[in-house]
């Protein structure tokens, strides 16, 4: 491997950050980084597009691979043991920044993007694997003839990840360039702020203040989240059921209001903004304040005995799954011209009629001809894997192959849309729907029982990893777009990160199954895999499937689309628990207030951008310290609350209000004079 032929010329800080002193925001990015561009306006990235940049070097590749191995093992271990899957992109970006500063590397931004891009494969591959494949071990306790091999876990993760990369590349330009400013990209925003902070600290002194602001916000958010998650000094979730009157209302009507008090979710809501946050929250309210009370009050007697959380998990949430699936279909129909454009481009390149011209470095993708060739190879590999490694009957393997290819390709845009809007990929919901569709098809062609379970779960693993990768990859490429990385290099080296992550997570799952197991009193939690197992068993063993709930969600999504409401965002709110959606609305309301806190539009813009920097810090700190908190809890540290539940609830409200006050007050410190921002 040879490093890029990168120029060593150091650009001055003004040129490095947008070419002109005017046009920088308090975030360090160009002024038009987060808004829609005018008809004749162009976005200029931080790294000059006319210059070659240091990106792919032995240092960046080796460091990225090490990050992929470490975080794949950590994410799989903690996700299965604690039941929480942390996002690896931000912690890896923080480590990359720290390493480059410690080693005194100049112009390290491009290398840090590659480190983050390779390393971030860990989180998306782990999510695809542990959401589905441990279900085989769970069901193995009931059906001993179910056999699970390492190569099945490894290849389903690897091939799914490769398909996710290849299927998304043709849509890169649409999502990251054509839709610039139309999506909030919350996770990409936070990660970019972390990466840019390293460049700023090496630049002009005035730019160092922005990095300092980000670091302080990260420490506040990280320490805040670590204290509540590790020591429980205040309630992590404040809920109406903690009071006597709230409990009485919940018992009688199943009506509950809850809010997670974490700093990371508050920052996420700020970046998402009030529009989408309100739609997401409306979806939650529809489920928690209408569907669940109706089921609890007028449903069968068993609903009256159930807690609202159980009604949500076992029944109401399934409506959201149906809605997500239909919203995905609607999204596919709306994106059909874009899909056809990508297919048409591939056809023209194969015929040798592709458009040629002087394409700028930061807009170069892997050629469509190579993409088509690699897609064909990947699909052949998937077919052979299904035939020789899973199903062993060619025509049934061919049917499974067709299901995977169609669903993975079509839902690629849905996964990318979800990440671009709310920073959360509904991959588990889409995978559940894939399992339901695939299982119904398999039963119809005579593939059921234990062999059908194995086939469905392995296929679900491929699709889940493909969609998880597509959603995560749009974040990487948006980061690269903002800073001016070369997409082709990000795309090429993403395959290496996927290979390393798939091998690591496969080994970790096999080891954890032998050491702890996935069934029994001391087994690993694996909540998503348990949900998959609960869905797949009745389908393959002749049980009852709640088709009516899926149909209700699908019809609701159609009505929402007809009314002009973003159906995917609304149905995401129905699928994600209420306590995680309420802080999104709080953060979005803060963003709206800060953006309209004065009569001076220029000042409002500066306050909004400073708030974006602070919110990014809260997300980054929460993500990094969340890893520390999970490790602390796994190590066996047991905390005791410093008082009654009522006291911790009160303290939770106070702490949350103080955090809100910090975000508002510090955002409003931005001055109209750029020098003092």
Condensed summary:
The chain is mainly alpha-helical. It has helices spanning 13-16, 58-82, 89-102, 109-119, 121-130, 134-140, 150-168, 172-178, 186-201, 205-230, 244-253, 263-272, 274-298, 301-305, 308-334, 336-350, 368-391, 394-410, 412-422, 427-444, 449-483, 487-515, 527-541, 547-563, 567-575, 578-595, 601-634, 645-667, and strands at residues 237-239, 258-260. The protein is 71% helix and 1% strand.
Structure description:
The protein has 28 helices and two strands. The chain has helices spanning 13-16, 58-82, 89-102, 109-119, 121-130, 134-140, 150-168, 172-178, 186-201, 205-230, 244-253, 263-272, 274-298, 301-305, 308-334, 336-350, 368-391, 394-410, 412-422, 427-444, 449-483, 487-515, 527-541, 547-563, 567-575, 578-595, 601-634, 645-667; strands at 237-239, 258-260. A two-stranded antiparallel sheet has the order 1-2. The radius of gyration is 24 Å and the shape is globular. The model is unreliable at 1-24, 202-208 and 673-677 (pLDDT under 50).
């Amino acid at each position: 491997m040879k490093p890029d032929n990168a120029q060593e010329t150091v650009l001055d800080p003004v040129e490095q950050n947008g070419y002109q002193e005017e046009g920088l925001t308090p975030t360090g990015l160009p002024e038009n980084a987060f808004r829609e561009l005018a008809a004749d306006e162009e976005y200029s990235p931080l790294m000059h597009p006319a210059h070659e940049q240091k990106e792919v070097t032995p240092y960046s590749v080796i460091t990225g691979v090490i990050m992929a191995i470490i975080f794949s093992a950590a994410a799989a271990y903690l996700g299965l043991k604690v039941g929480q899957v942390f996002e690896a992109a931000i912690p890896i970006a923080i480590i990359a920044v720290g390493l480059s500063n410690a080693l005194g590397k100049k112009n390290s931004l491009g290398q840090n993007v590659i480190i983050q891009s390779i390393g971030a494969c860990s989180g998306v591959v782990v999510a695809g694997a542990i959401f589905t494949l441990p279900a085989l071990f769970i069901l193995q306790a009931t059906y001993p003839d179910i056999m699970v091999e390492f190569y099945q876990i490894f290849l389903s993760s690897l091939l799914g990840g490769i398909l996710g990369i290849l299927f998304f590349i043709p849509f890169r330009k649409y999502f990251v360039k054509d839709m610039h400013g139309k999506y909030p990209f919350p996770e990409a925003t936070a990660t970019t702020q972390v990466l840019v902070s390293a460049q700023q600290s090496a630049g002009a002194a005035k730019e160092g203040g922005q990095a300092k602001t980000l670091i302080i916000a990260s420490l506040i958010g990280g320490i805040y989240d670590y204290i509540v998650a590790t020591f429980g000094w205040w309630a992590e979730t404040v809920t109406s059921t903690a009071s006597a009157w709230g409990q009485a209302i919940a018992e009688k009507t199943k009506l509950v209001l809850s809010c997670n008090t974490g700093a990371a979710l508050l920052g996420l809501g700020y970046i998402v903004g009030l529009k989408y946050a309100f739609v997401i929250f409306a979806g939650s309210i529809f489920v928690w304040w209408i569907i669940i009370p109706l089921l609890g009050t007028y449903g069968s007697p068993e609903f009256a005995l159930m807690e609202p959380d159980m009604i949500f998990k076992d029944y109401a949430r399934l409506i959201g799954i149906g809605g997500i699936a239909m919203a995905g279909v609607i999204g596919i129909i709306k994106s059909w011209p874009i899909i056809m454009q990508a297919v048409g481009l591939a056809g023209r390149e194969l015929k040798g009629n592709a458009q040629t011209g002087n394409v700028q470095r930061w807009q170069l993708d892997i050629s469509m001809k190579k993409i088509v060739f690699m897609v064909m190879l990947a699909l052949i590999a998937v077919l052979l894997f299904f035939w020789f490694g899973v199903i062993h009957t060619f025509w049934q393997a061919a049917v499974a192959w067709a299901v995977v290819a169609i669903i993975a390709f079509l839902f690629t845009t849905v996964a990318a849309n979800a990440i671009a809007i709310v920073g959360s990929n509904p991959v588990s919901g889409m995978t559940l729907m894939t399992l339901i569709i695939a299982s119904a098809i398999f039963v119809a062609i005579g593939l059921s029982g234990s062999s059908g379970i194995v086939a469905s779960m392995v296929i679900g693993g491929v699709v889940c990893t493909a969609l998880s990768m597509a959603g995560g990859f749009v974040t990487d490429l948006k980061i690269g777009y903002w800073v001016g990385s070369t997409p082709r290099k990000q795309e090429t080296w993403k395959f290496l990160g996927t290979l390393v992550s798939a091998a690591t997570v496969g080994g970790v799952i096999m080891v954890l199954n032998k050491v702890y197991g996935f069934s029994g009193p001391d087994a690993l939690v694996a909540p998503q895999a348990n949900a998959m197992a609960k869905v797949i068993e009745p389908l393959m063993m002749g049980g009852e499937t709640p088709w009516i709930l899926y149909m209700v969600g699908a019809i609701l999504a159609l009505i929402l689309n007809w009314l002009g409401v973003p159906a995917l965002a609304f149905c995401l709110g129905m699928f994600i628990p209420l306590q995680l959606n309420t802080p999104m609305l709080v953060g979005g309301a803060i963003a709206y207030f800060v953006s309209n806190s004065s009569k001076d539009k220029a000042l409002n813009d500066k306050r909004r951008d400073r708030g974006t920097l602070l919110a990014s810090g809260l997300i980054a700190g929460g993500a990094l310290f969340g890893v520390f908190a999970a490790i602390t809890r796994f190590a066996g540290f047991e905390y005791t609350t410093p008082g009654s539940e009522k006291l911790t609830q009160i303290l939770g409200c106070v702490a949350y209000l103080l955090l809100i006050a910090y975000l508002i007050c510090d955002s409003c410190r931005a001055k109209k004079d750029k020098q003092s921002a």
